[in-house]
Amino acid sequence: VAADGTKQFSLTMRAGRTEVLPGKPTTTWGFNGAFLGPTIRATRGDRVAMRVHNQLGEPSTVHWHGMRLPAVMDGGPHQTVQPGTTWSPHWTIDQPAATSWYHPHPHGSTAKHVYRGLAGLFLVDDPATAAPDLPSTYGVDDIPLILQDKILDANGRLQENPKPTRGLIGDQILVNGVYDPFFEVTTALVRLRILNGSNARMYNVEFADRRRFHVIGTDAGLLAAPATVDRVQLSPGERLEVLVEFAPRDQVVLRSVAGDNGIDEGDYDLLKFVAADQLGPGPSVPRRLAASPRIEAPAGARERRFRLSGSDEINGREMEMTRIDEVVPAGATEIWHVQNTVYAHNFHIHEVAFRILDVDGRQPPAYLQGPKDTAFIPAKSTVRLAVQFGRHTDPKTPYMYHCHILRHEDKGMMGQFVIV
Ligand code: C2O
Ligand code: CU
């Protein structure tokens, strides 16, 4: 913390060696350390200042996925950090409590940079939009779970053999960079902050004993009330916060099972929970959560349409760095229709929070009705979003919207908008 109260964070992008499989080191990339990055945490109202230093041998960027901030601070493909240089964005945190994250966004190379290990969580606290008694001791009853799939050869070396359409899909699932992990539960109620940090894999997350659990938050903030479920789906870039109840000596595996959308094939164990003989008392699951109002589009809201086709086009065009596709008035709430002509994709919009209005005219499940910034778009479907834009204007510097399957983003399934 600087003398004027600014919270300063330092992130150095570098290569290193990691034993993902014990005794078998492989080259990985990380922020500060060899693999992944530290969890950044700040409170609404904080001024934050980042020092992003690039020690990779090539240009990169760092995008604050989920942050509401000026476009020049966003870390998209226009804010390149050349090798050997430092980028110093700063802004004031002004958004509800949420689990956000950060990762590189260099145009055409995002898939490679994220896959090699450049990703971390960015937690926003806000006493005004959080229930007072949620589990919140980081690492004890408030646990981040970054889900990523990798391809590792017999010598434990990270492989990069992209599949032609979806890119890098692995069959070794890491949680927080760890293969075959377990977690020792010491409290009766545990909060999990789950990030799908994979390049392309979808997860359908459930407990092997099919116990029910409670979704409390989506990408951009808490739900109005917990939604009780026995399985949740996360496409790349999406986050969910959930509460899980444990009994003493419970042993249960969190796993991902194949879904019916054709793109999350395979059953995988994610993490084993092992509960202690005696558990500290946890708070009970709250009945109400957030104080932030639901995102509503006003009558007569501007509507825009986006057609995702093949694996590289939106509205028939590939992304171009010099073309502004949409101009949005500051503070607007608009309705965006995102349509998949054939394959399943997902859709992320920088800077905003949105609410999923409907999927082919049907309401999404309760657990997906919270504030979000990334949504799964099923094959041959149209998803309508009520999108709330911020008030940081800049007619020259665009924000991005794109498919978060990183190979698709790299190939051009991305567009640019400015806020004026
Ligand atoms: Cu998480 Cu434009 O990205
Ligand atoms: Cu896609």
Task: Indicate the topology.
Layout: E1 7-21, E2 24-31, E3 40-43, E4 47-54, E5 63-65, E6 86-87, E7 90-92, E8 98-103, H1 110-115, E9 120-125, E10 142-150, E11 172-175, E12 178-179, E13 182-187, E14 189-196, E15 203-207, E16 213-218, E17 221-229, E18 232-234, E19 239-245, E20 251-256, E21 268-280, E22 303-309, E23 313-314, E24 326-328, E25 333-340, E26 345-349, E27 353-359, E28 374-377, E29 382-388, E30 399-402, H2 406-411, E31 414-419
Parallel strand pairs: 1-4, 3-9, 10-14, 13-21, 22-25, 24-31
Antiparallel strand pairs: 1-2, 4-6, 4-7, 5-8, 8-9, 10-11, 11-12, 14-19, 15-18, 15-20, 16-17, 16-19, 20-21, 22-23, 25-29, 26-28, 26-30, 27-29, 30-31
Bound molecules: CU-O-CU linkage and copper (II) ion (CU).
Copper (II) ion binds at residues 311, 345, 403, 405, 408, 413.
